[in-house]
C-alpha cells in the first residue's frame, strides 16, 4: 500500500505543515490512512495525525470526513460533547502523491481494547453506565443538534480519554490509559489488520451468545477479570469517515456486521435509530464481554439470515409487517413473515440469557434489560432517542458490587 495513490511513508521526526507537527510514532492504521502520534509545536501538545492515502477516492472520503468533523467542532466550542475534536487539516505532498491530513485531539485505547483487557469478562455495570452516558451525549449531539448519523458505531470507534497531561509524551509517561495492555507488535492501538483478526477470533467465541442452532463453546478465559478501579471511564466517539447527514445519505449498506440494524439488512430505509441499535449492541458487549450478535453463514442459509434468526431468538419474532416490508424481505421471509430457510428458532429472552449464561443477579438482569430492550425494537421509530436514553433511571442506579457482573452473579449463586 506504500505506493502511488496509497499510504504516505513516515519516518520518526518528519515535519508536517511547514514544521508545525513532528511525527513521533505510529498509533494505528485503517483502510484509508495511517495515524501517527505527533508533537504540535504551536500548542506544545501531542496530537493524532491521520494521513490519508492519496488516490482520488481516498481524498474524496477525507474531504467528507473533514466536512463532518468541522461541523462537529463548530457546534461544540467547549469540546464537551464526547466527540473527537478536529484541530487542523492540511495537504501534504510526498512521493506517493498528495495526502489530506487531519490533526485530531489525541485519545486513548478503544473500548475493544478495554473489553480485551478485562479478558472478555464484562465490565462492571457502574463503569458501563459511565461509558453509556458519554456515548449518549455524543449521539444526542450528533443526531438532534447536527442531524448526523454515525453509521459505524462499534467498540473500536469509541476511544477512552487520555488521563495524561497532553503536553507530555503519553507513551513515555506510562501510556495514556495506563491500564491497558499493548497488542503484539507494539502499536498503541493496533490498527485494522489487528482488529480484523481480533474480530474473527471474537466472532468465533461469541456465537454462544444465545443458545443457538449451532451449539458452540463459550470459550471465556478461566482467569478472573481485572480490577478497573480508579480508571476514569470517559470516552469519545471517533471515525466519521462513514458518517452522513440524515437528509443526505449515500450508502444503502451501512454499519459493521455485528452492529447492523435489521432495517439495514432488509433495506427498509434507515435514520438516526440505526445508531441506537448499534449502541445497544455495544452496551451488551461491554457488560458481558461477548458480542450480542455474531452471525455466520451456515449450510443452507446466509449470514444475513443467520443474523435475523439470532435477533428473533433473543428479541422475539419480528412483526410480520416489518419482516415483509423491506426491499430485500423476499430474499429472507415468506409472506407470513417466517424465515424461509431457518425454520426452527430457539427463543431465549435477554433477561434469561443474562441470568443463565452470564450469571447476572436477577435484579441486575431485569434492570439492564429494561434499559436495553427498547433500543432493540424491530420498529426503528419506536426506539428511544439518545436524549430519552439519557433520562433513563438505569443510568443513575448503583450496583453495590465492584466485581464484574459475571463474577458477582457467581458469588451470589454460591451463597
Ligand atoms: P477505517 O479502515 O476503520 O475506516 P481509517 O483509515 O478511517 O480506518 P481511523 O479508524 O480513523 O482510520 O484510525 C485508525 C486507527 O488509529 C484507529 O483504529 C485508532 O486506533 C487510531 N486513532 C484514530 N484516531 C485517533 C485519535 N484521535 N487518538 C488516538 N488514536 C487514534
Ligand atoms: Mg476505524
Ligand atoms: Mg474510517
Keywords:
415 residues, alpha+beta, six-stranded antiparallel beta sheet, two-stranded antiparallel ribbon, 13 helices, 13% strand, globular, binds adenosine-5'-triphosphate
Q: How is this structure best described in words?
A:
The structure is a single chain. It contains 13 helices and ten strands. The protein is an alpha+beta fold and 415 residues long. Strands 1-2-3-4-6-5 form a six-stranded antiparallel β-sheet, covered by helices on one side. It has a two-stranded antiparallel ribbon with strand order 7-10. α3 runs antiparallel to α6 and α10 packs antiparallel against α11. One magnesium ion binds next to loops.
Number of helices: 13
Number of strands: 10
Strands in their spatial order, largest beta sheet: 1-2-3-4-6-5
**SSE series:** EEEEHEEHHEEHEEHHHHHHHHH
Separation of the first and last Cα atoms: 57 Å
- Helix vs. strand class: alpha+beta
**Ligands bound here?**
adenosine-5'-triphosphate, magnesium ion
Question: Which runs of at least 5 residues are low in confidence (pLDDT < 50)?
Answer: 175-219, 409-415
Level of helix content? 25-40%
Mean pLDDT: 86
- β-strand percent reads 5-15%
Q: Main sheet, how many strands, which sense, barrel?
A: 6 strands, antiparallel
Rounded to an integer in angstroms, the radius of gyration calculated over CA atoms is 22 Å
Mass-distribution shape: globular
Amino acid at each position: 500500500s506504500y505506493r502511488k495513490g496509497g499510504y504516505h511513508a513516515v519516518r520518526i521526526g518528519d515535519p508536517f505543515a511547514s514544521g508545525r507537527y513532528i511525527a513521533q510514532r505510529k498509533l494505528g492504521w485503517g483502510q484509508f490512512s495511517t495515524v501517527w502520534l505527533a508533537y504540535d509545536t504551536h500548542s506544545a501538545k501531542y496530537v493524532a495525525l491521520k494521513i490519508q492515502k492519496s488516490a482520488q477516492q481516498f481524498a474524496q472520503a477525507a474531504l467528507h470526513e473533514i466536512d463532518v468533523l468541522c461541523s462537529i467542532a463548530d457546534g461544540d466550542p467547549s469540546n464537551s460533547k464526547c466527540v473527537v475534536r478536529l484541530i487542523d487539516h492540511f495537504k501534504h505532498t510526498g512521493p506517493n502523491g498528495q495526502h489530506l491530513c487531519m490533526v485530531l485531539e489525541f485519545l486513548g485505547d478503544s473500548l475493544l481494547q478495554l473489553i480485551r483487557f478485562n479478558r472478555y469478562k464484562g465490565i462492571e455495570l457502574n463503569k458501563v453506565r459511565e461509558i453509556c452516558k458519554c456515548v449518549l451525549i455524543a449521539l444526542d449531539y450528533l443526531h438532534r443538534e447536527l442531524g448526523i448519523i454515525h453509521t459505524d458505531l462499534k467498540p473500536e470507534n469509541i476511544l477512552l480519554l487520555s488521563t495524561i497531561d497532553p503536553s507530555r509524551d503519553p507513551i513515555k509517561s506510562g501510556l495514556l490509559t495506563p491500564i491497558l495492555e499493548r497488542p503484539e507488535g507494539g502499536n498503541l492501538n493496533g490498527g485494522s489488520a489487528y482488529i480484523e483478526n481480533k474480530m474473527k477470533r471474537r466472532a468465533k467465541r461469541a456465537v454462544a451468545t444465545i443458545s443457538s442452532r449451532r451449539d458452540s463453546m463459550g470459550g471465556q478465559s478461566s482467569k478472573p477479570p481485572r480490577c478497573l478501579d480508579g480508571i476514569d471511564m470517559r470516552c469519545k466517539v471517533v471515525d466519521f469517515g462513514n458518517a452522513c447527514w440524515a437528509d443526505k445519505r449515500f450508502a444503502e449498506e451501512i454499519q459493521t456486521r455485528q452492529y447492523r440494524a435489521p432495517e439495514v439488512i432488509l433495506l427498509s430505509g434507515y435514520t438516526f435509530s440505526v445508531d441506537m441499535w448499534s449502541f445497544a449492541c455495544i452496551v451488551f458487549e461491554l457488560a458481558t464481554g461477548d458480542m450480542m450478535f455474531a452471525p455466520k453463514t451456515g449450510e443452507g442459509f446466509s449470514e444475513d439470515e443467520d443474523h435475523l434468526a439470532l435477533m428473533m431468538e433473543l428479541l422475539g419474532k419480528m412483526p410480520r409487517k416489518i419482516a415483509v416490508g423491506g426491499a430485500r424481505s423476499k430474499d429472507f421471509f415468506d409472506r407470513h413473515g417466517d424465515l424461509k430457510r431457518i425454520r426452527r428458532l430457539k427463543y431465549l429472552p435477554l433477561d434469561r440469557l443474562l441470568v443463565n449464561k452470564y450469571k447476572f443477579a436477577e435484579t441486575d438482569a431485569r434492570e439492564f434489560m429494561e434499559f436495553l430492550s427498547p433500543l432493540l425494537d424491530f420498529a426503528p421509530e419506536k426506539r428511544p432517542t439518545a436524549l430519552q436514553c439519557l433520562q433513563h433511571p438505569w443510568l443513575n442506579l448503583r450496583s453495590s458490587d465492584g466485581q464484574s457482573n459475571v463474577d458477582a452473579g457467581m458469588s451470589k449463586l454460591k451463597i
